[in-house]
Amino acid sequence: MTFDVQEELKKLPGKPGVYIMHDASDAIIYVGKAINLHNRVRSYFRKIVGRGPQIDKMVQQIARFEYIVTDSELEALVLENNLIKEHEPKYNTMLKDDKTYPYIKVTLGDRFPRVMMCRQMKKDKAKYFGPFTNGTAVKDTIDLVNKLFMLRTCNKALPKDVGNDRPCLNYHIHQCAAPCQGYISEEEYNGKIEEVLRFLQGDHSRILKDLEEKMKQASENMEFEEAIRYRDLIQSVQSVSERQKITGSTGEDKDIIAMAQDGQDVVVQVFFVRDGKMIGREHFYMTHVSEQSKPEILEDFVKQYYAGTPFVPKEVMLQYEIGDVEILEQWLSGKRGNRAYILNPKKGTKEKLVELAAQNASLVLQQDKERLKREEGRTIGAVKEIAGLLGLSGISRMEAFDISNISGFATVGSMVVFEKGKPKRSDYRKFRIKSVSGPDDYACMKEVLTRRFVHGMEEREELRDKELEDTFGSFTRFPDLLLMDGGRGQVNIALQVLQELGISIPVCGMVKDDNHRTRGLYFNNVEIPIDHRSEGFKLITRIQDEAHRFAIEYHRSLRSKNQVKSVLDDIPGVGPARRKALMRHFKSMQEIKEADVQTLMQIPEIPEHIAEEIVKFFAH
Fold it and tell me: Does domain 5-92 bear CATH number 3.30.450.20?
């Protein structure tokens, strides 16, 4: 059934909701929300000048659209976020984030509360601190709190289980007051929890003063081990205290958000301020941003970020003024449980904090671009250098082959694949040589290459029959350049196989010197020298080493299996199951050889007649 766009546009209701654009293959390519679906969706299909090539390109791909009516714009906002996260449409600006942040949770709903780490905030009676960006620091803080205040770490149901078991090790090493034994009252224990809450809120001075007094007292009493314990606790408290940078005296929770953009690359920086202290920062990448203004990118970030994080601070301070502020504040307030504000500070301390976040975003973006530039030199740049040396163009996929054997035993071949200068391990393949006996590397290589390309041609034919020509597997896609581990001989073998199969692929040899180090490239009957300091040479070396490593590992695994098999599986009546039972029971092959019949019969899988066969086998 055909979709008549103009006819469907007439049916659009003038209500809030979400619209979903599909392409010809029915994939979702864009999701948006609207206060008025009738006006918003129709705007895409008008001839509007200056709308931007990206949007025009998206509109050209729309084969049909659908919509979901909601009761309010707020409901539309929530639904839009959910659909974007689920379908990741091609033309929506996307937040690239797989982070989940740790929180410190104090289980105030328990009679004897615990302090623990969690990654989700729930609507319960617990008190949460965070989110934090450093999971190790969170664990260290929790360990410190438990040691300082001697809190329980068990999950016993107290006071119901009091006295049911002996006290655990933590009690004996003075790290738990053992409420499970009734050694501390509920009132005294909860007094410690109040101190914990003050400590986690940043009040460290009181506990430091108390620890210093105890350390001095222990030292005066010549209890030096105890004094050292207090000293270590003081250092731990100071370490936790130094992690928190004071940013204000209001004691409020804030997120400070700013961004930096360089063409298609966007980094958003978030500073986390909790109880007036900056506890950490994190950066995020945004994609599909070409046609959007900076305020629009920041608005999309706010929607997607707070849709996925359980904690909403009282204030969200942004670098730019964004649209939909009222509806976003309403949404954030609902998630928070009380009023949340979106601010765009223009002066004073808050404005300086936003500037600092923007500077950090620019720094991350610059460092990332420099890293990518270096990486590109090592990968794509190196491929271009190799292509230039060979006089080729359009090289992306390279395949290299190697043979491994010891005196012809269990000969194997390896195929490694590099795309754009990076290993594509999902396309690596192993070959166990079937038609060649003895150490004949040329014949082995001919078998490997023949099997590789015949398999690829058969897959291509099968896909063509199913009209799936654009589907590529590891064998279906042929390389742009074939790299052989050797010179003239290996290259000629490869050219012979390709000629017999009617395939045209450039073949290049990786020539080694007498010390088995890469010397140059062999191409079109000429050895081409290559600068040993160049990225192209380093890439060739990496490919050569990877092909060799992959073949050696496969050969080693086969060799070890065959060695075990040759010793035990040659014994009459001993198959894989009994071999495994023997290896599980005895520590070494030598113990099996020295065992008598009675010892062997202790293994349930070994009856008397098999035990006798084993003893008889090793007696000869």
Answer: no
